[in-house]
Amino acid sequence: MSKEQALLQTYNLNGLELPNRVVMAPMTRSRADNTENKPIEELHGEYYKQRASAGLIIAEGSQISKQAVGYVNTPGIYSRAQVEGWKEVTQTVHEAGGRIFLQLWHVGRMSHPDFHNGGLPLAPSAINPNDKSFTPEGFKETVTPKEMSIEEIKETVEDFKNAAKNAMNAGFDGVEVHSSNGYLLHQFFNGTSNKRSDEYGGSIDNRTRIMFEVLDAIKEVVPENKIGVRLNPSLHGVFGMTMDEETIPTFDHLITRLNEYNLAYLHLSEPFTDVSHLPYAETEIAKRYRPIYKGTIIINNGFDRESGNKIIEKGNADLIAFGKPYISNPDLVERFEQDVPLSKFDQETFYTPGEKGYLDYEIKTERAEVLQ
Predict the structure, then answer these.
(1) Which member of 45, 162, 324, 355 has the greatest number of CB atoms within 10 A?
(2) Is domain 6-371 given the CATH code 3.40.50.150 in the classification?
(3) How far, CA to CA in Å, does 101 sit from each of 57, 86, 137, 239?
(4) Residue 37, Cβ neighbours under 10 Å: how many?
(5) Which helix (H) or strand (E) holds 17?
(6) Is the pTM of this model over 0.90?
(7) Which residue in 11, 48, 71, 183 is the catalytic one?
(8) Strand (E) or helix (H) holding 300
């Protein structure tokens, strides 16, 4: 196979020209091992530069505030030092011919008191996910979080806005709102993690209210066509999240309303676990939401070259996001083009500090001219 592959065709991402349809998915790598939790040019810059032939890089989730953090050594986007660190990364990627968005992240109840001087994490409701949080002292059991006040919700919306503004000041081509995978915004959507009785709980309209407040705030400082949204409709059995009969109707509502915005894209995930036994789950996410969402769809989770090409050819998605394959294959686009076998990743070094398992995966193909 060659450049005739669907994955290798160019794409106009609502004004941003992409040389191919291969997206590097946002992945936590825990390399911001410094007191300011800022990215480091020699590490983060080189890591993303190595992968700059992707049609689009969506950089790792970056906390929008100190309160948003929930994993050790993850970079933020709320301080001046962090913005300056990211500036070096985006400059390096752009010099290599790449395009890069930043994912804006608040983990909600998946955080731990160790990150907050003993204080409780914030969440829609005081419900323990009964999982583990990755703290500076290793994995620890999660706790029952503090139910957010209206004021804290409003402050969090403002934090998303400020983080988005910081990201653009750092030179990113756009931002992705992380409203997926069992983190804060997703916790609001789900009736099993949100038991509120005010305007942010109860009805589908109320549980999704925060999503649109965040988007309306961000679009004051970032053009809509530079904003992406990440959703995982059939997440079940991960981070304490479970589905019920209202889960899919909630996402139907969310995604229908997203058509009111001129977004860069909607980034969807196929189910992380087997949900075929659940009568109210959707097993084919891209297929369900292609007719509903009128803009660009990125689909993620478990794709390879063959399945990625096929789903684009069917018309169920426009772009394919690859996660783990990008860890061990910096030249993933060229390997797809030149039919070079993929290298295996070392899961033991996914979240360890330093270059090992981060910068030392071999580039085995001839790179595109832009990267020479």
Answers:
(1) 45
(2) no
(3) 6, 11, 31, 25
(4) 22
(5) strand 16-18
(6) yes
(7) 183
(8) strand 297-300
